[in-house]
From TrEMBL, chains A, B:
<dbReference type="InterPro" id="IPR004709">
    <property type="entry name" value="NaH_exchanger"/>
</dbReference>
<feature type="transmembrane region" description="Helical">
    <location>
        <begin position="114"/>
        <end position="133"/>
    </location>
</feature>
<dbReference type="Pfam" id="PF00999">
    <property type="entry name" value="Na_H_Exchanger"/>
</dbReference>
<feature type="transmembrane region" description="Helical">
    <location>
        <begin position="179"/>
        <end position="202"/>
    </location>
</feature>
<keyword id="KW-0812">Transmembrane</keyword>
<keyword id="KW-1133">Transmembrane helix</keyword>
<keyword id="KW-0813">Transport</keyword>
<feature type="transmembrane region" description="Helical">
    <location>
        <begin position="345"/>
        <end position="367"/>
    </location>
</feature>
<dbReference type="GO" id="GO:0071805">
    <property type="term" value="P:potassium ion transmembrane transport"/>
</dbReference>
<dbReference type="GO" id="GO:0098719">
    <property type="term" value="P:sodium ion import across plasma membrane"/>
</dbReference>
<keyword id="KW-0739">Sodium transport</keyword>
<keyword id="KW-0630">Potassium</keyword>
<feature type="transmembrane region" description="Helical">
    <location>
        <begin position="29"/>
        <end position="45"/>
    </location>
</feature>
<dbReference type="GO" id="GO:0015386">
    <property type="term" value="F:potassium:proton antiporter activity"/>
</dbReference>
<keyword id="KW-0406">Ion transport</keyword>
<feature type="transmembrane region" description="Helical">
    <location>
        <begin position="307"/>
        <end position="325"/>
    </location>
</feature>
<dbReference type="GO" id="GO:0005886">
    <property type="term" value="C:plasma membrane"/>
</dbReference>
Length: 551, 551
């Protein structure tokens, strides 16, 4: 036992002393990360009942703990244990999370909320971006920190506009508050896409001599990226549906169709990055399209597996990212550089946190007011309590700001910027840690405070909170996610047919939805498949399986 | 369209001109690989009926085609398009393939065949290793090629002893020839493990002054690695079963248990590599243990997903490896170095191919004879036709020899070895290409020739070839793989109980199996779960689901 203990210590020392970036022996780091992710999942399961703790916080603490252990074991020698690898994050860990989001989102609620989602996610993020940019410019120039250019301030605005709503989504229950959930969820994804697009546009454009023409071009470029990314996502999603429908893989090569789905989903992201679009937006849209068409062209088993497998990949990627964030917080060299002027560092972090809150508040409440003006139905309007939940869900900052910040300020550039760069990195680390741990741990408490369970019924037809172990259907979390609900949806749609004319006039969403349904059934499903269309699926034994699964 | 075409060309040129190893922008390469893997899967599906073509050949040709295209587009400038990344292969692509093998193997047949598997896989590989080593020593010294040391010849022996039985397994049908399939399959995995262990042992030991003591130590080390790897695999497999059983994840966090399974499977491989055991053997054993315990401690949906998801990962990894092999074949610099002495290069390749065949033949037939002597039951003896299939299945060489060869001869060492090193690399490429493409494409034809479908019944209780689309059960390829068969197995076991005494004396396998079953039921399943043991599973709705899936 003792020998084993000293073995572990010497192993950890080896990890600590290995240079970051030198990928000569990834086995050590891999083993450590895998053990830590397992520990996070197990601890997360054990601490499920605790109100103040959530999965990101657990992972961050595990990361911090490991980082400190390594630091102590190597006697502070390894000044950088791990440097946040921007590429690793954007190329391998973000895509599965976002794709899974697109695949699992309840399309009905998402599209019902589309106006609000775009309003908050795109327009709101722009407002937050401007406030953060000019707030930080004012602050830095007043205190005389660093020699930042306009470009840097705009980058700061983009960096700190990227929210991380994972904590909030863990608390909100999709079944209890479907509309609010889809709004927070959709806004989160659109927000990520918007801030990354903004950041890339800032890096690309020469903003030193700003004028109306450049601003116009910038806005045009922004909209171009948005549209192109969406179209690419739709195109690859439809292509995957078409190919898998045409090929009609047999039952014995079921994993071939699943492999194609995974590869094409990833391809959508990679192609978007290649064309310099927004991969986040593309892969999200691709997920939505795939969940509407492709998922129904594969056999039932592949369908269930796909949902389940993507959720699993997303879980692993999320834990990894938070662990990484925790370990990364100990970038000693940067902290040393900052320690010469501790005042300005604390000041900057406090200021950025205030700007984050200010930026968020200054669009959530006005835009909610605007949205309520445009909404006719009284029950679809956003109550003040719901507005608060939306406000709160956007306060956390996560891996995206971290990655963008390293991208902008991580390079060791000219000397007169180095101090300011170090301040920005440590400030980002502080904001991410503080918001995730402090704001994150308050989330459950606050949401249950403003939205007690009795408030839930005004948004859902079944107000009962589902008890996880009481019904048979619960063992099929993913199946029930789409089949049962979709079947219900179908029923509702057919029974509504008579009153279609009334709805037609009263609600713009419903009429658009009605025409989309018609077009979808008449043309799209004929070409791209989708639920219940293709003959060989309807009459096949799979329907029997699906039926028996639902009994 | 034209613009798009030129865009593709300039993109390919960019890929071609990017330096290998400089991982600055992986997006280009990733996009290319994903598109190619998709193309392989689609083409493979379309060409399913063709007898001379199989998946590895398609992937290799796609790889070669892309390599040539890149080479032409860059005007031969990019001398190395891709250098085989040994680490990438062993760390990321091999583990899922081997783990999937362990998970999907039919345990009953595997353990029934264990003696033969170890005989061919371990002892046979050693024979082949000695013949290849001393054959190449004789050849090189006679022709005076290179200044190789004994160590290099031994490495050559280990490199060319690693078979690749994927082609053969694609032709053999597990349901038609279960025992032969499990023998070829098991031998392939044990062979991989043996040759990698051998190779590592050779690199570690100082073999310049060989004597009896060193040989003894070498053999002891070899057995130590074998035992330690097996024990580690069992330990991690059991640990995963225990943890997942204890935690009893709810239905709503089904993907957490799946994530734990994936991570712990990978952990077994990584830990084995960390301790310098054989990761291949460890992860294979871990897969077997997990399929016996862990798979039954998760809910039915996770179980189905796990089987399906691992098979999918394996498919993607396999395609990737063969694509890589194809592209890698165009290592221009090495070919240029070799072109100074084309005769010795062709000679070496021919000699190595002959040695591969000789090495294989010289243990398959003698060991089959030995195995037949030890087997009492007439129907379990290996017929000459089956011996030929075993012989043939070990002629193909794949990614493992390639990786080992780059490891041994890929470094640019001292000058007087450089020519010989280049010859060995190109020789490995030639052997891998030739054996996979030529031997591989003959496989279907030859196996159908020596084992026509009428020969199949002597090995299986259900002799009917299953038609893939006729029965309902076929839509559940993975479920049926383990549940139905295992249920049958159970029935048979209980009905045999009376005649146990008779069997006890007549067959050593059955008596060992009987005691194992007793121990398994009395102790192992109580602690580690497994099929049908745990109460909360038996009485839960999942059993109902499982039942309805099987109806």
């Amino acid at each position: 036992m003792e020998r084993m203990g000293s073995g572990v210590v010497s192993w950890l020392m080896r990890i600590g002393e290995s240079k970051p970036g030198s990928a000569q022996d990834p086995v050590d780091n891999l083993a450590m990360f895998i053990i830590l992710i397992c520990a996070c999942i197990i601890t997360g399961h054990q601490l499920k009942g605790f109100r103040w703790i959530n999965e990101p916080i657990i992972a961050i603490f595990f990361g911090l703990g490991t980082g400190i252990t390594l630091l102590v074991l190597t006697g502070g020698k390894s000044s950088k244990i791990l440097v946040f690898d921007v590429e690793l994050f954007f190329t391998y860990f973000l895509p599965p999370i976002i794709f899974n989001a697109g695949l699992q989102v309840k399309k009905e609620h998402f599209f019902k909320n589309l106006m609000n989602i775009m309003l908050f996610g795109a327009f709101g993020t722009l407002i937050s971006f401007f406030i953060t940019s000019f707030g930080s410019k004012l602050f830095f120039e007043t205190l005389g920190i660093g020699n930042f250019e306009l470009k840097d301030y705009l980058a700061i605005g983009a960096i700190f506009s990227a929210t991380d709503s994972i904590c909030t989504l863990q608390v909100l229950n999709q079944d209890e508050l479907p509309l609010l959930y889809s709004l927070v969820f959709g806004e989160g994804v659109v927000n990520d896409a918007t801030s990354v697009v903004l950041f890339n546009a800032i890096q690309k454009f020469d903003l030193s001599h700003i004028n109306a023409m450049i601003v116009f071009k910038f806005i045009r470029h922004f909209f171009y990226l948005f549209t192109a990314s969406t179209l690419l996502g739709v195109a690859i999603g439809l292509l995957s549906a078409y190919i898998i429908k045409k090929l009609n893989f047999g039952r014995d090569s079921a994993y071939h169709e699943l492999a194609l789905m995974i590869l094409m989903a990833y391809l959508s992201y990679i192609l978007a990055e290649l064309f310099e679009f927004s991969g986040i937006l593309t892969v999200f849209i691709c997920g939505i399209v795939m969940s509407h068409y492709t998922l129904y062209n594969v056999n039932t088993l592949s369908r269930v597996t796909a949902m389940h497998a993507f959720a699993t990949m997303s879980v692993i990627a999320e834990r990894f990212i938070y662990l990484y964030l925790g370990m990364d917080a100990l970038d000693i060299e940067k902290w040393k550089a900052v320690s010469k002027s501790p005042g300005s560092s604390v000041g900057t972090s406090t200021m950025m946190l205030s700007l984050v809150m200010l930026g968020r508040a200054s669009f959530v409440f006005p835009l909610s007011f605007l949205s309520n003006l445009l909404t006719k139905s009284e029950r679809d309007k956003l109550s003040l309590k719901q507005q608060f939940v939306i406000f709160w869900s956007g306060l956390m900052r996560g891996a995206v700001p971290m990655a963008l910040s390293y991208n902008q300020f991580g390079k060791s550039g000219d000397d007169n910027k180095q101090q300011a760069n170090a301040i920005m990195i440590t400030c980002t680390i502080t904001v991410v840690m503080f918001s995730t741990v402090v704001f994150g741990s308050l989330t459950t408490y606050l949401i249950r405070l403003v939205l007690p369970p009795s408030d839930f019924e005004n948004n859902t037809h079944s107000s009962e909170p589902r008890s996880p172990s009481s019904s048979t259907i619960d063992i099929l979390p993913f199946l029930s996610n789409y089949t049962i609900q979709d079947l219900e949806e179908d029923d509702r749609i057919s029974s509504r047919k008579i009153s279609r004319l009334v709805l037609f006039l009263s609600s713009p969403y419903n009429s658009v939805h009605y025409y989309w349904r018609k077009f979808d059934n008449a043309f799209m499903r004929r070409v791209f498949g989708g639920r219940g269309f293709t003959v060989h699926l309807t009459s096949s034994p799979e329907e029997t399986l699906e039926h028996s699964l639902l009994v």
